[in-house]
Amino acid sequence: MKKEIPFWERYMLTTREAAEYFHIGENKIRTIIKENDDAEFLIMNGNRVMIKRKVFEAYLNSATVV
Questions:
Q1: Is residue 2 pLDDT above 90, yes or no?
Q2: Could you tell me if residue 1 is inside a domain?
């Protein structure tokens, strides 16, 4: 039996999950990733980019434009 963890409790999100959670388009999330490829909120899981939810929230809180 697999337990599903809700978005708001996850440590990391995929780009699709982040787009849904933060109400930002998936293409915009990918653009942010490309522009900030060495950011603290990114972590690689194999060839998949994952977003650290709380660190990305802090990034968005300090951003004036998304």
A1: no
A2: no
Does 4 map to a domain? no
Residues in the chain: 66
Domain range enclosing 39 = 9-62
Q: What is the pTM of this model?
A: 0.87
Total tally of structural domains belonging to the chain: 1
CA distance to 2, 25, 31, per residue, from 19 (Å): 24, 5, 12
Please report, for the domain that includes residue 13, its CATH number: 3.90.105.50
Cβ burial of 29 (10 Å; 0-12, 13-18, 19+) is buried
E strand or H helix that includes residue 49: strand 48-52
Sequence-separated (6 or more) residues with CB below 8 Å from residue 17: 7, 10
